[in-house]
UniProtKB/TrEMBL annotation:
This is CRISPR-associated protein, Cmr2 family. One of its GO terms (molecular function) is nucleotide binding. Keywords: Antiviral defense, Nucleotide-binding. It holds the Pfam family Cmr2_N. CDD domains: Cas10_III. It comes from the Bacteria. It comes from Fontimonas thermophila. GO terms for biological process: defense response to virus.
Amino acid sequence: MTHELLWQTKLAARLHDPAEKALVLLRDPAGHENGTSRALRRLLGFDRLAENIDPDNDEALVRTLFKKGLPLEMYRHIQRADWWAAAADRPQFPLQEITVTTKSGEQKTLAVANWAQVRWAKNPVLVHPLTGAQYDLGQHGGLSDTDIADIKQRSFDHFSRLVAALGAKEETSPDWRKLLLAFWRFGPELTEEADNGKLGALWGLLPADTRIPDHSIWDHLDLTSAFAGAFVADPQGEVALLALSIGPVQPFIAAARKMDDLWAGSHLLSRLAWEVMQPVCERLGPDAILFPRLRGIPQVDLWLRDRMGLPDSLFADSDWMQGGADANPLFSAALPNRFVAVVPARQGKDIAEACTRAVRQWLNDLGRDVVSRLLHAGGYDVEATTTPYEQMKAQLAGFPEVHWASVPFALIKPGNPDKQTDLDIGGLSEAMAPFFGVEPGQPCGFLATPAWQVLQKEIDWNDGTTFFVPNPGVLYPAVYDLAERVLAAAKAVRPFEQIKQEGWRDSLSGEAEWLTTDRSQLTQPAGQRQDTLWTRVAKAKPAWAKEGEHLGALSAIKRLWPTVFAEEVGRALAAGEKGEKKDIGRFVVSTHTMALAYQLDQWLERGGLTAEGLSNRLKPAETAALPRRLVRRHAANPALADAKRIPALLDDARDAEDDKAYENAKRLVEATLAHGRGSKDKIRLETYYALLMMDGDRMGAILSGDEKTAILFRASFHPQVQKGFDQRAAQQPLLRQYGDQKRPISPNRHLAISGALNDFSQTVVRHVVEEEHLGRVIYAGGDDVLAMLPVADLLSCMQRLRHAYSGVDSDHEGGVWQGLTLQQGFAALKKRQRLQVMRMMGEHATASCGAIIAHHQAPLSAVLRELRSAEKRAKGEGGRDAFSITVLKRSGGALYLTAQWGEPVALLNELIAFLRAEDTSRRAVYHTLEWLRDLPEPQSNPEMLERLLAYQLARQSGSDPRAASLAQRLARLAAAQPHNGRQWLENFLTVAEFLARETRSGGQA
């Protein structure tokens, strides 16, 4: 195989079906395969590759090759790839044999009955692959009465522009890899010029099969290209699934003393994940990776432009190209620490080892750069000082850990190689048996499911109904399951190599010795280190090390990563067509700034008048990063510049350890933020901020096809097909039994999940946290979210993220929330005047959230420990699909509340509003708690609890009419708790009281 043949084959596979197939199917007299696809193959010169067709081939094959304009070898690979992709992605479809006579008198058998011939352009319905929910795209105006010729022309023009942008000319051989990469990345993004406002969001969602619209044409083309490339790259035309993961994850992220460390750990791990994926992408293309989906990930875009040579102009509309501010999506951690890819069977080990070498080499290069920066900052000879380089190399040895497993599809033997049918699964069954504890040959895993019992052979329906005979693609669920189990076994037996470490340990992780220029210094305890690398760095670069800190290799890399990556982004943006040098300032919002964010926002809303005397104290050069929403809302307000300097002023005054100077600065800031409030009460600065950590529930089970998110076969069908299917199934028990089976996992399911998680984490999370609220995303990758917020925004943001994860929010379906609509498992968001419709995880997928409210001076390591504990409580005590809030009081002690989503969140918000009412005494909760401790458990007498609550709340609020309803709901929820309902109610009331305070100063708490 030549390198050129690989990319030619993959590109031809991407063109085997036109993107607009769903819109022209059953409407185009030329047939869907003879329209845009054929025109593009001619444009790219595939017909020249196929000029010499062997005359000994049968006439039908010659006609096929002529129509498709492909060489025989390439055609065979693509045909098999298409068969496998269709079998892996689509449920077996019951077909009806109908014999008709054509005008020429020939007898012709049609496979699809009239009731299953969907004219999708008239009824554009999508089916959510994880719920079966039907989503009508027509409601967004995505379809019009455009004729077939116009649709085809727009599609052809779109891809022609991509060809022209790459400079491909008919008389020269094109760069096939660049073409493949451009078609993969930008095919689903129809430009305004090509679209003219007619297809919009519909283009990226067009289904591959109008009868089964639960996966897009782009998913099908990706999978077909992945299979075709692996087939042609393997000497025997065999493929395998490669599953690979890196780690450790949590210890690497958790070691943090400030917010920059937390961001750096998450972002650096995501970057390592990309570095480990690069060899696969460079050898086989990014479409070879089925999970995660890489299309549209900013770091991958950067690779496409700078390493693969795609022109800068193609990325002009991408968010990461819009500017050098810290809101640039490149600063978001986007990728999980594992991937699943389709690879040539005989190259699995070689590719996995190349991935391992690549990621470790990249980290070692970064380590050397970090050491040289530290030495330069400390005033040492960068080249001659060797000790810290040696330490860095030793401490990075074997990091990250890389585990992988490769399972070949060759375990499945087609009895009919030409048709890829008559499957012999003996080898697969034997390989699976040890992992399921059964004897070889005994059904296990997917091979023991009712779905396989139906799919594995032809069934005599006795009524003219038939199924496609299965090919190896149908067994994707079994191969994937085996790969996951082998990977888990590989992790369990990983070797452990002890690394010798001497002297005092790293200040951040406490594991490795700190980097030094003189190893004798390692024996010096803290307080006696006078002239070390780190004491010098702390003076020269305070952002890299605080006074007294001494860091090891990984901690040093994390600490300098914000600086290193900001420079990288600046260079990347400067490398664009404008060529402007970009300076990226601080992009991590401090805990102190976040605590003040809500008050700063309200102050700017009132005009932003600065108190007399404060202006002189504010230093122009010292600014703090502010939440994105605050900056955007008040971009035209001149006082925004002061808002950026106020947190920096307070931080500087505190760090100077001059109590008088700090109190003076604090007094001036309080006077400033009180301007325009219309109240004589003295304002107190908010000193608490919030962190939330959200995680999808049972993600491993969802990827493996758990019962809750696996839909029935019949639920995959278009509503028109469902109706026809149900009519036939009513007369045919076997057909009805098939329709009622749960669908097994498929590449489409993994692509759908990955796509949903990408859109959720990269687009929706950022919108919710940073556009709808005053928060800052620290990490958003897949189903994991870590964000920082003002306390005032915490509850609203938590609930909104939970709704967004599933794509269901009945309270805001009308787009009330600044253009984001969540409905039936989909999210619709208008960005830069273009509607973006995205699939979310669906109503059956749940997420749990831990949240913590802490003083901005509380040690971050302790806050993170409590945050992780809160998330565990949500998944444990809350039973998943729950939230758990911890309030860490500055004065000592903590408050805890764990509950399910929904009613408890609504009630908590209403109780907070009740406690904030002007006539409600702040002692309402305290008085209630005094007598509550003497009551029996609510389960024994909820009526008495309700009456007493109603009395106390009414008494402390001047007979507020809301008291009775609040008491009834509080009593009901307390009684519904599985155990200790009284303690739960105490927690609920105390957390509500804390959140109801206008501000939470250190002295109060």
